[in-house]
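Today's session is about reading a structure prediction critically. Students often jump straight to the picture, but the first step is always the sequence itself: look for stretches that repeat, for charged clusters, for runs of hydrophobic residues. Only then move on to the predicted structure, which in these notes is written as discrete structure tokens rather than atom positions. Here is the chain we will use throughout the hour.
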Amino acid sequence: MKIIVTDTPGQAFQRAADMIAEEIRGSGAPVLGLATGRTMESIYQLLVRDHDAGTLDFSGTMSFNLDEYVGLPPTDPNSYSHYMQEHLFSHVNMPAGQGHVPNGVAADLDAECARYEAAIRAAGGLGLQLLGIGETGHIGFNEPPSAFDSRTRVVHLDDVTRRQNSAMFGDDPERVPERALTMGVGTILEARRLVLVAVGEGKAAIVDEALNGPISEAVSATAIRLHDDATVILDEAAARIWRR
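Below is the predicted structure for this chain, in token form.
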């Protein structure tokens, strides 16, 4: 596992964007695993800037997002499908239908999870998977405990996660859906390359646990230490405890 520590959050975002751009340029048919959240917004802004400058072509790119809330249609401003349209898909030349997000309003959620897994396989598997880390140590919405061989499935969100994500729901954790669809840890680990990005003092403790603590299904982010090609990008604040 490679760990990169930058002086500022902006430098961390740039390193991640550069790695994604390298993946897109270096593959004839790149398949990206994408994530959401405030950290990812900054990364996507940099990718859109490169696209606007004519240096990054998304026309051959396919993507699969990690997760989606159960019960939120793509038109809901709090859905991750809407997030991806707002922050990336509507700004680049990725053809419609090549950016995939789980369907949180599918009539049969288990069938939707199986369909999503099949779509990833049909695309040839994930190339680069972008990851954040939540306060419970989750990657995707793989709340503790999550088996390291788990696949895309329906999960119940931890109260900690619902509080963490409540800003988009009027700071009311009760408005955050109780369930989500998420790629499993096993699905994530099958990606050829993992890139986890964390910035800020608030991530320092869980980053230290993920990188220095026992590899455990109680902290799904520890699973990346089992991967052959994982890069963790941190700013100084997020790396503070880990570097002691």
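Discussion point for the tutorial: The helical segments are 9-26, 38-52, 80-87, 109-122, 159-164, 185-189, 204-212.
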